[in-house]
Input
Amino acid sequence: MLRKIATGGMAEVFLAVHEGPEGFEKPVAIKQILPHLASDEHFVRMFLDEARIAARLSHPNIVQIFDLGVEGQIHYLAMEYLFGESLARLEEQLVRSGRTLPLEASLFIATNLCLALHHAHTFSLGAGPQPIVHRDVSPSNVLLSFDGAVKLADFGVAKVKGSQKTTTIGLIKGKVGYMAPEQILGEPIDSRADLFALGIVLYELVTGRVPFAGKSMRAVFDAVTNPEPPAPASSINPALPAQIDALLARALRKRPDDRFQTAADFLEALEDAQRSLSLVTNSLSLGRLVERTFGPARLPHSEKSQSTVSRILAYLDAEPLTRAAEGGAAKPGDAGFDEAPTLVRKR
Output
């Protein structure tokens, strides 16, 4: 392992390299449970659940799991390393520089996330359909590479439909600011909760604000669970076309039966908007945007002799970044849980 790159409430992530003959090397991410939680049966079970669930999924828009192991008493996952930044970091940088994400880039990110969710929601094995609900779709769990790849990460709180495991009373799994009403209320959820969360992410991308704000946990709960719809996205960003307003209004309806029913439905609406508004873009354009945002000088492309791992280390060394591998479960009153409403960015 080369260095730590992220720490969260349940695990820490390291950059590592897998080496082979003839100079072969491949960067990987090693996610390991925090040492003080290594003997906590609940957190170990969550960690192993993530490994088991994510390892079943193989899709270009989902971070891949390569291996699960244990060193001493510490469990770890070997995962795909994406050379880039999280969507949350991109949003923060754009806000800091007074810029906004182009609408075509926002729609491109959302379409890729729809493809990832469609794969998880329609997953099946020989025994039949086994839909996987992510339950934590949020900007910190969306990774963007400097090549323009969009990948959904962290299935640590995902649930397989039909699983006999139940959520412990008093635990909230996911980030409150990105939860569907039924998820906050502890009611049964299905794939439509993920689609609601994706609607929140897209709303935030095109307006710069989350749709359900509040100065306290109770206020955020109330904003999400009361019957009132959020303010139209165009009331915040008047430049938004009516078609995007309508799409977001449907995605964020409080009753699951009134929303998009499948990721495929959501994807179709996004692609219709891209075509009719001539907002089609591609991964190369997104990659250039991410690279410009974080500074091309920090990416040593010109040194062709450098290996991929060397370039990654040069990037990480150029400017220390604060990264949070958010996820896991928190109890009301626990340190960190009350930070959920601060996902509503202060401006």
